[in-house]
Amino acid sequence: MRYLLEYAEGERVVAFCLVKAKEVGVTSSQSEYLNLELGDRSGTMTAKLWDVTEELKESIQVKSIIKIDAMVQNYRGKKQLVIQRVRLASPSDEVMMEALVPVSPFPVEELWAKLERYVGEIKSQVLQAIVREVLQDEEISGRLRQFPAGVKMHHNYFHGLLEHIVSLLTAAERLLPLYPHVEKDVLYATCILHDIGKLYELSDAVAPDYTTPGQLIGHLVMGVELVSGICRKLGIPLGQAEVLHLKHCMLSHHGDVENGWGSAVSGKTPTAVMFHYLDQIDSKMNALGQTLSEMGEEEWGYTGALRRKVWRGY
Amino acid sequence: MRYLLEYAEGERVVAFCLVKAKEVGVTSSQSEYLNLELGDRSGTMTAKLWDVTEELKESIQVKSIIKIDAMVQNYRGKKQLVIQRVRLASPSDEVMMEALVPVSPFPVEELWAKLERYVGEIKSQVLQAIVREVLQDEEISGRLRQFPAGVKMHHNYFHGLLEHIVSLLTAAERLLPLYPHVEKDVLYATCILHDIGKLYELSDAVAPDYTTPGQLIGHLVMGVELVSGICRKLGIPLGQAEVLHLKHCMLSHHGDVENGWGSAVSGKTPTAVMFHYLDQIDSKMNALGQTLSEMGEEEWGYTGALRRKVWRGY
Amino acid sequence: MRYLLEYAEGERVVAFCLVKAKEVGVTSSQSEYLNLELGDRSGTMTAKLWDVTEELKESIQVKSIIKIDAMVQNYRGKKQLVIQRVRLASPSDEVMMEALVPVSPFPVEELWAKLERYVGEIKSQVLQAIVREVLQDEEISGRLRQFPAGVKMHHNYFHGLLEHIVSLLTAAERLLPLYPHVEKDVLYATCILHDIGKLYELSDAVAPDYTTPGQLIGHLVMGVELVSGICRKLGIPLGQAEVLHLKHCMLSHHGDVENGWGSAVSGKTPTAVMFHYLDQIDSKMNALGQTLSEMGEEEWGYTGALRRKVWRGY
Amino acid sequence: MRYLLEYAEGERVVAFCLVKAKEVGVTSSQSEYLNLELGDRSGTMTAKLWDVTEELKESIQVKSIIKIDAMVQNYRGKKQLVIQRVRLASPSDEVMMEALVPVSPFPVEELWAKLERYVGEIKSQVLQAIVREVLQDEEISGRLRQFPAGVKMHHNYFHGLLEHIVSLLTAAERLLPLYPHVEKDVLYATCILHDIGKLYELSDAVAPDYTTPGQLIGHLVMGVELVSGICRKLGIPLGQAEVLHLKHCMLSHHGDVENGWGSAVSGKTPTAVMFHYLDQIDSKMNALGQTLSEMGEEEWGYTGALRRKVWRGY
Amino acid sequence: MRYLLEYAEGERVVAFCLVKAKEVGVTSSQSEYLNLELGDRSGTMTAKLWDVTEELKESIQVKSIIKIDAMVQNYRGKKQLVIQRVRLASPSDEVMMEALVPVSPFPVEELWAKLERYVGEIKSQVLQAIVREVLQDEEISGRLRQFPAGVKMHHNYFHGLLEHIVSLLTAAERLLPLYPHVEKDVLYATCILHDIGKLYELSDAVAPDYTTPGQLIGHLVMGVELVSGICRKLGIPLGQAEVLHLKHCMLSHHGDVENGWGSAVSGKTPTAVMFHYLDQIDSKMNALGQTLSEMGEEEWGYTGALRRKVWRGY
Amino acid sequence: MRYLLEYAEGERVVAFCLVKAKEVGVTSSQSEYLNLELGDRSGTMTAKLWDVTEELKESIQVKSIIKIDAMVQNYRGKKQLVIQRVRLASPSDEVMMEALVPVSPFPVEELWAKLERYVGEIKSQVLQAIVREVLQDEEISGRLRQFPAGVKMHHNYFHGLLEHIVSLLTAAERLLPLYPHVEKDVLYATCILHDIGKLYELSDAVAPDYTTPGQLIGHLVMGVELVSGICRKLGIPLGQAEVLHLKHCMLSHHGDVENGWGSAVSGKTPTAVMFHYLDQIDSKMNALGQTLSEMGEEEWGYTGALRRKVWRGY
Known about the structure:
Six copies of one chain form a homohexamer.
Chain A: E1 12-26, E2 32-40, E3 43-49, H1 54-59, E4 65-75, E5 78-88, H2 108-120, H3 125-136, H4 138-144, H5 160-175, H6 184-193, H7 198-201, H8 212-217, H9 219-234, H10 241-251, H11 270-295, E6 300-303, E7 308-311
Parallel strand pairs in A: 3-5
Antiparallel strand pairs in A: 1-2, 1-4, 2-3, 4-5, 6-7
Helix pairs in contact in A: 2-5, 3-9, 5-6, 5-11, 6-10, 6-11, 9-10, 10-11
């Protein structure tokens, strides 16, 4: 199977793809056409559908999955698809979402296995029980295997949040021996749960928007409430020191309150302070890494998450 | 019954009072004495206890209630107590805490009755149920009849928080007819519950410190969790729009996130935005009012909550 | 009489309207046409004038009032006017400006009557004399019956400033009983005069720009100077305490100097501090209200004055 | 005549001086004494008045001028006065205030003559008339010959404001040829009038406090109102471009509004922008110069106006 | 010789010019054309090249120098060139770069002579040696005769940096007599060297970009390193007080560190503090002057360097 | 050998210690005494020297090493030394500085061996040569075995900087495998050299002050200049990519320029961005660790480097 960006100019493409953007145009002879942005795992390409019927104009929407039969042409120096035939995908097509969107370079099952191993290393019975309960929840674990870590800042691709969690756990494991005042169990639980509220702050894994609860409450407090709900279910008192510490780390993981980045409290323990910086490192390395990959041989690129030009290095 | 500040120079005072501060001094002849700051409802006065015994030195502590027999003297232009006899108060003395600390000018039962009336006006069954459940909780209602609204910024006296709540409700009731997009039920519920977390963020009503959960979680999120706990108990879904709105107003009541004052989200509804300003007005009017009362005939005073000199007006 | 937005697709419109924006376009056959944005009280609609003559191209300008004979068509899902005939309005047409621009929902005479009532309640002879003198000035009272409160932030429509003033007075009246340290006369006078400088900071009521004095001096100081001029005229000493207090409230009504929003001094009295927050409430409720009205059934909208997405509530 | 700091240890001093600070102390034998800080033009010295009478304790106040007969002693490595005899100065003593406070190094008449010369160079009749009218006012010119430019930041000594003005005029004269877009007349008038409001913002020239109008209105707006009053008196229209420009420069001379330093508007002309920086240079050079003078041979000192350690240079 | 902007509508232009921007367009008949922005010393004009050949499409690039034969036409009220013939310039054309880009109004040799005179006035042998060594470097002096002071903020034209330096020296010379604590030699050396790093921070004098070292190190530190390198070459110890002072002034010339404008240290001497403000004056007067020149008769313009509308004055 | 804090009340102490603070007091009988703060490796204790001679008063200075014969007494609940006999230490006493000041818990030779190992892992010949050259310099390596990493923020004890460097290298080594875009050689060299300028920014290892070059240039630029000097010595071009990258990381290690913490440029590579956060983690974990150690059984303490109360955790 070949992906969109692998086709050369002049080739014919028959493939499933995802509609990322859609605009209706009118030619000088007053006939309507569609300007589409189509994407799959390999990236996105623009497409033209001339003389579009009313029916297609209605049925093809952003987030639709369609099957196209098209030619790759050159338009002002870039490849563009000219669609000859098109239809909506049906369930019987069995299209894998993983084929249609950018996806983490690490297989989901490999990440999940690592996650399980780290959970097993949490010695605190209370914290391990909480984490296990979260991960056994069918809805949560289902989402966690698919959701990105954000709309565009970092790990913004299929199961990107899971990758981010495992990456943080790995970093945490490696730094822990150096800083004896950091509490391993709390740090591991924070790595796993700090962004768990994003599974409900975002609408879906494919083309995520912010949900209403997400905008009104925010993922920090949503995550903390989820933890509290589980404590109640498991009969763990909310005032328990480990639970308090975990929630403190979650609520402070955006850094000092004074920065205005949305922490509800400033970090007041070595564990909370360290986690904030680990999270900064992991998210910024991912954002910078994406920029560097796209730059290829270019010496300079631009990373939105840092609002800055970045250098490839030597 | 007369209060401390009502005694004149030269008079003898026999009274109960609260120890607010304590320092051990040594005279040039190497004997020890106590410098105390004693307070009751009327305010505070310094006191000297010469030739203190080891036993008294140990037993008299900050927050102790003591009975003194003392003379009011003039020391560098100010009244000072010179204690002749002193003992710790015992339960049989039946000292009323209200007599020993500054207290709201409004009787607690009058405030509570008003609060009940406002609760009755909440039409949303969900919100009324939540508020009623909170106020019926014995521990919460007990604390609410005693706690200040803060350690020193505003309404920093016995049942000051209750006064603040009723004052906000009254202000809300009066402004609501002007702003039809504000939702009355949510606004009332927010007035009542926005600082409810302070009942657990602060240690006690007499000489409050911050508790450990208070410092790690903060009263905004503590309040929201209390509300969520009640919803679970009452079977109200957390995603219910009114509940979401109430929690949003609670989490945003310190103003825009960018200010760095600890809101977890910025207000995104007319109700949330208005409540923040009402809360600013009510707290600052209280702080300014205290300064103006203390200024007496002075033209200028100083209000710590505004970090600014303030003018008496004409 | 029907307004622009009340016409349906396919109908013919003969109406007066205001030119809000104008652009000259060229067709592929090199003939020129006009893209116009036309507005009246009900809102704005785009319009096309094909094959425009040189004369019309010159005479139709932004802020022109024109009479059109046009058809409502559908263009990419929105209503658009295609103009068949057009001419400039002449004085004999007796077009009412109120029909051509968005206008406060409250009749100007009703607002003025309320304003007069509040003026009557000012007990300070000095402050009442100042306020009466301002309102009796023909130019000022003429402008006050027309000017918006701003170019786009809030109350940005015909006699919006007057509505804002009356709304503030009403809010002030309602909150005053709660806060005894606030001086009613000064608060009322500040409500009326705080933005009076805007009548000269802005160029006109229909399509306001900033005037040169407005940009060089700003409406806070302009208003204070206007008050001082009137004091001189009436023989009121500038050092008089009430006058000083009024001017202090005017100069501090944008909040603390440190915020950098243009207050010349920070508020140092209960009256000044409260007024700033009342002004914030009234302006933001208006801005949010406009957004919510435009949103209709949408759950989320955007309010420029808050730079934020806003929620409709439940 | 010798000044306080010129006397050596062991010498007897008979001199007039100003009381800068006063504290009542009590010896271990319960007798009272005064700790004074006494000053004259040369600086300040501490003084002890043992066994003070009730009468002297009352009559000697901060800002009193007293005549002392005292011995210079060494107290912990520093010179200290021990007062033997003391009385309040009487009018017949004809003590010159200039002898009692730090004073500008430039004679007042020399500064005034320079000021007059610069006024004569203002070609704009309107601006020259305004400036002349200000300087001819008896009260203003009287104060201008005495007032400091501030309480402690810079030029904080007798006729310091006049020195600051002349220094700014000289700097302006020298830079004008380089920047042709700067308007000389406006710049000169701004140099002279920018801080004229300080003559009423401060209470007096000897030991200045902030006045009530000073704190409520601030010297920027006070100065602008003074200019407007003069325009009215002289029949100059307030909307006149030169007057507008002068007032704009006065209102913006604390820099950009966003800085939160109290400008009412940000500078929008070359003249306004340049003046702000000239004012910064002149005030900071004065503050730094004072620090360097006091440092003597020390390599490092501290300048409060910059909140920073400063270096003597090589 | 006439420059681009001196030609009137309808005239024929045969001239050399610089390509500032280039875009390929497609007509409705699918033929390609070029939209160009062409410039010379007088400014820029848009140009159309219809029916462009593949070869020209490739060879004409941004920064190319071309010779055109074109007609000036009116397009939507502005002059536009329609190119009939075009070719790339060749070395034999001997086009002077000064004819193709905006250039300082002061002749380079006049500026250089002034610079030499100021260097001669530096009395410190150490500082004079450093400055002379810099200016004798062939590469540096070559660049200094061509480079702008920046990409777009101020003195953004041919040998603009040299003009800025001489302007600063003149201002410094004029203010020095007023401020005796400022060290003339250090100030002069700082005027000359403060932006010397820009000669390597920017790529070239014609269409400057930031170089890689420029972005990674910045012109402040680059300049300081250049000075240190010269000290080593001349055998001047780096710890020498004058050298230390010069480097301090260079490193602090963007103002206080806390501003976040890139100073590595805050200015701690009168010389350093004054230089920062002189630099602000000179750069902002230049930026404002350019805006005012372009405004012509307009009352208001916009200066990007101040992010603000600016007024022409009276 | 026992340290100061190991002696109990009532014991006699004969020991060397360092004078950390000194104050001359006067008893009511006018005799002078010294209040000293004495310290050794274990911490500090206050001490009284009654009836001090003129000679001792002069010879005992801050930073003096003295030998005392004293009794440990209880003074207001704390241990205090009452000195019976005292003399200055002489070289023949052979007092080890390590015994007199707080010192890193890690032996210097162990740290140095680890440092050498990391240097050996730098594969880039250029970077390894630079690092080796720095470490072979006798003065630098001598200082590096003694200097703290700062006056009081973190690693503020004997050879604290060396401990900080080795700790950073260890952390870097552990995280490198996770982030492939980070350049190991540059990161290692930055760990070693980022604070190397502190060896000259601070005066000495025992009671460090800021040096004049330290205050005028700052340790970031001082370190970069040291690197450049070595490059010149070794014939490595300054424009070499690895050198540029190393210097970029050094100049940006205080975070974004906009923060105003003194970075000369903002980090623009994965290596620079990561290093900043690693440095934050290592310094804050050290500061927090010191607080937690001092807290003992207390639940809450205070960390100056974070300006915040900190929690012990569970």
